[in-house]
Write a structure and sequence with these properties.
about 425 residues; alpha/beta; Urease, subunit C, domain 1; TIM Barrel; 2 domains; four-stranded mixed sheet; 13 helices; about 20% strand; globular; binds fe (ii) ion
Amino acid sequence: MFDLLIKNATLADAKTQVSIAIKDGKIVDVGPRVEGEALEAIDADGNLVTPPFIDPHFHMDATLSLGMPRLNESGTLLEGIALWGELKPHLTIEALKQRAHALAKWSIAKGTLAIRSHVDTSDESLMAVEALLEVKKEIAPWIDMQLVAFPQDGYFRSKGAVDNLARALDMGVDVVGGIPHFERTMADGAASVTALCEIAAERGLLVDMHCDETDDPMSRHIETLAYETKRLGLEGRVAGSHLTSMHSMDNYYVSKLLPLIAEAEITAIPNPLINITLQGRHDSYPKRRGMTRVKEMQEMGINVALGHDCVMDPWYSMGSHDMLEVAHMAVHVGQLTGVSQMKSMFKAVTENSAKVMHLEGYGLETGCNADMVILQAKDELEAIRLRPARLFVIRRGKVISKTEPVVAKVDLDGAVHEVTFQR
Ligand code: FE2
């Protein structure tokens, strides 16, 4: 007897009429002819069933703090960092946790069941670290959360940051972060990458740095990050988040850089919603788009995942933690409108992100965790186009969120037409 049987599902590779059988929180059978009784059944009605969405780059400590203590008037990254600095002295563990828990419910409703969150370690008290370590434990039944020790004010630039980061890792933070482009000089930036990668190698941890989040084409810390990854044998364990300066780098230099990133098996994590709004702020016209070279990296075989980065915080006033919104923006900003390119952006918010987080049991094969989302859409392209309702969000075989199908009723002189925007 299965615990749950999902019938009439469509999978991302256009397999239709698929059934998924679940027992004890695991997928025990998948295919067109799954036989057996189940305690509960869901008819997916031909809709797309996908493994959960994943956000591999987020800031849970700052989320939902929009307007505290004031709004970002210039809309720039630097005013955002300054604003966060103004807010920090007023933070409390309770308020931090409350906002994180509120966001987690949004994430679940949108089918985002794994989150890698950076946590600011600049503050001597490490209050945000303490709060998010508790949140991580409390939401573990529903969301896989990873924390990155993030020296927001600079690893060398800010007094006490070296010690604070080490203490955060001692407390149980999972991943080593950094912000080399925010250090005072290029040399300090490069030295911070080396120091932080060495810490990760010594402690056996993953690395995920905010790297070159600037329009300055001479910001080349990704080169050092790739070099150190190889030198320290960290291949496949390092991510470069943002990498926006690459959009403005010299093409010859990039032709030499991309093979190095590929050899180091670094995952690139662009954050298209944030990159399109924060970058190019010093430009008049023409104005740069701000997102890194996704297409070129994919062609080199580099794993590209996509992050949301912010929801209603000092840097970004919008968002609902919908990873399909992120994929939608990536398709536009990156001009990734070919069919296979659009599908690759769906992968960027699902399996490519699972890879960078080293998640185990992710996917819809037999033996995987029974975590999945049934969308009100027939395929990946429709999902990105409509960012539709998440009809069912399932975690370890249990439905943890439901949304009714969204249907508009258009009344034209008494003739009522149902509109779902699907062909
Ligand atoms: Fe970020």
